[in-house]
Amino acid sequence: MSAWHLQKLQLKNLLGFQGLREQRFQPGIQVIEAPNHTGKTSLTMALLWGLTGNIPNLPRISRQSFRMSNKHAGTDAEQFCQIDLVDDAGRCMTVKRLYRGARADLDTELTLEVDSKILSGQDAQARIVEELRVKPGGLEGCGVVLQDHRLGFITGKDSDISEIISDMLGLTVLSRFVPTLEERLKEAKGLQKEITGYLEAADPLKKV
Amino acid sequence: MGIEWKKISETLPKTAAQLVRDIQRAYESGGDDPARAVDMTLLEKLSGVRARFEALKKEGAK
């Protein structure tokens, strides 16, 4: 089965981006480090939405305050997410999801171009699932973007390590890339528990 | 005398971004086996925390 990796992501008038925004990715581990509120989460969400049609649940973003379209773009503005991927054999795939208005999971128009074929709607979604092995809801845990064994981390300066680790825990694909990862994370959790237990026993009033 | 979490945490990367950069470096210099390089980096970090914890425990027991 092919190992696809992200090549380019384009967003137009979606989430935190007004107008067209393009982000290129390199093979291997990619780190996007930028100050808070500059669009890292928007980038991740758009990517997941583009591939699955679903918006990941983020504890810090309430459903009430969530807007798929950029609030500064006019209601008639074109809104889409386009994802270009390439696999190890050099095959290319382009996913384009247009946003039509009210519900991010329903009001979309999806097209997929792969192996010189253009698919749309459910056929396109089924092919994406088959090629990328991504399922709606299967990539929750925003903060780490990855595709097969290619990794991309998107971190904010305020992110703490436990958040990143829990993201890693939630994404089993990463374990496929580093087979011992789960073991290491178990060790890290065990060590953390041991240290916390020790400190609390030494000073029960002090919260670690 | 007790030990402080702050002293143990000195062995951890300062930020998540730093941890990610360390993993990235390991991956890129990992040659044919980047997964092993990433694993060794994680192991090294865990051992560092464990060693500092044990040393501080020992010091505290004196």
How would the blueprint of this fold be written?
The complex is a heterodimer of chains A (208) and B (62).
Chain A: E1 4-12, E2 20-24, E3 30-34, H1 40-52, E4 80-87, E5 92-99, E6 108-114, E7 117-120, H2 121-132, E8 144-147, E9 150-156, H3 161-170, H4 172-177, H5 181-202
Parallel strand pairs in A: 3-9
Antiparallel strand pairs in A: 1-2, 1-4, 4-5, 5-6, 6-7, 8-9
Chain B: H1 5-9, H2 16-28, H3 34-61
Helix pairs in contact in B: 2-3
Describe the structure.
The complex is a heterodimer of chains A (208) and B (62). Chain A has five helices and nine strands, in the order βββαββββαββααα. Chain A has 208 residues and is an alpha+beta fold. A six-stranded antiparallel beta sheet of chain A has the order 2-1-4-5-6-7, with helices on one face. The radius of gyration of chain A is 19 Å and the shape is extended. Chain B has 62 residues and is mostly helical. Chain B has one domain. Chain B is built from three helices and no strands. Chain B has helices spanning 5-9, 16-28, 34-61. At the A-B interface, strand 9, helix 3 and helix 5 of A face helix 2 and helix 3 of B.
Key features of this structure:
heterodimer; A: 208 residues; alpha+beta; Rossmann fold; 6-stranded antiparallel β-sheet; 3-stranded mixed β-sheet; 5 helices; 30% helix; 27% strand; extended; B: 62 residues; mainly alpha; 3 helices; 74% helix
In a few lines, what is going on in this structure?
The complex is a heterodimer of chains A (208) and B (62). Chain A contains five helices and nine strands.
Principal-axes geometry of chain B comes out as elongated
Instruction: Give the strand order of the largest sheet of chain A, numbering strands 1, 2, ... along the chain.
Output: 2-1-4-5-6-7
Low-confidence blocks of residues of chain A = 135-151, 153-176
Radius of gyration of chain A: 19 Å
Described by its quaternary structure, the protein is heterodimer
